[in-house]
């Protein structure tokens, strides 16, 4: 069953620039810029080399290399339901960085910067989110639902610009 309890809580919210991506893990960290090509093929049977997903992916990587992107990567997200469109793209460029150096730099920076919260907005509001949690918890007792993923945003405005790289 594919159901979103948040469908009734549609809100406009700020998002990251569509042509930037940030990835950090203990094993590899990089940022990207630009967008060479978008890829929305559903990932159904995506682990099979002869699937439409893999075939179109290979063609897109070949196109990127033919256009001069030396080591193309693909970033973005594949939905929980692989029948839904993927949200992936090949950036025009990417740069690796050291996770340890980034974290050390962020610690030094945050000691010298003072931010004050001037506005805070929960999306959805607390009471609506609590109702969503109660409904989701009740649904887990039925055969209709296999798993529940819940989240909410807290949109915070500060009195000075925030370096998102420092937060991550």
UniProtKB/TrEMBL annotation:
Name of this chain's protein: Isochorismate synthase
Residues making up the signal peptide according to the UniProt record: none
InterPro entries for the chain: ADC_synthase (IPR005801)
Phylogenetic classification of the source organism: Bacteria, Pseudomonadati, Pseudomonadota, Gammaproteobacteria, Enterobacterales
Superkingdom to which the source organism belongs: Bacteria
SUPFAM superfamilies: ADC synthase
């Amino acid at each position: 069953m594919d159901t979103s309890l948040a469908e009734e809580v549609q809100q406009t919210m700020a998002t990251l620039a569509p042509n930037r991506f940030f990835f950090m893990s203990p094993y590899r960290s990089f940022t990207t810029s630009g967008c060479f090509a978008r890829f929305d093929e559903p990932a159904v049977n995506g682990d099979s080399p002869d699937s439409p997903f893999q075939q179109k992916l290979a063609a897109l990587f070949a196109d990127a290399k033919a256009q001069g992107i030396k080591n193309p990567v693909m970033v973005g997200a594949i939905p929980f339901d692989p029948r839904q469109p993927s949200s992936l793209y090949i950036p025009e460029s990417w740069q690796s960085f050291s996770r340890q150096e980034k974290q050390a730099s962020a610690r030094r920076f945050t000691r010298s910067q003072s931010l004050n919260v001037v506005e805070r907005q929960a999306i959805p509001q607390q009471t609506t989110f609590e109702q969503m949690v109660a409904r989701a918890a009740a649904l887990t007792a039925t055969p209709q639902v296999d798993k529940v993923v819940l989240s909410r945003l807290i949109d915070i405005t500060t009195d000075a610009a925030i370096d998102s790289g420092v937060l991550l």
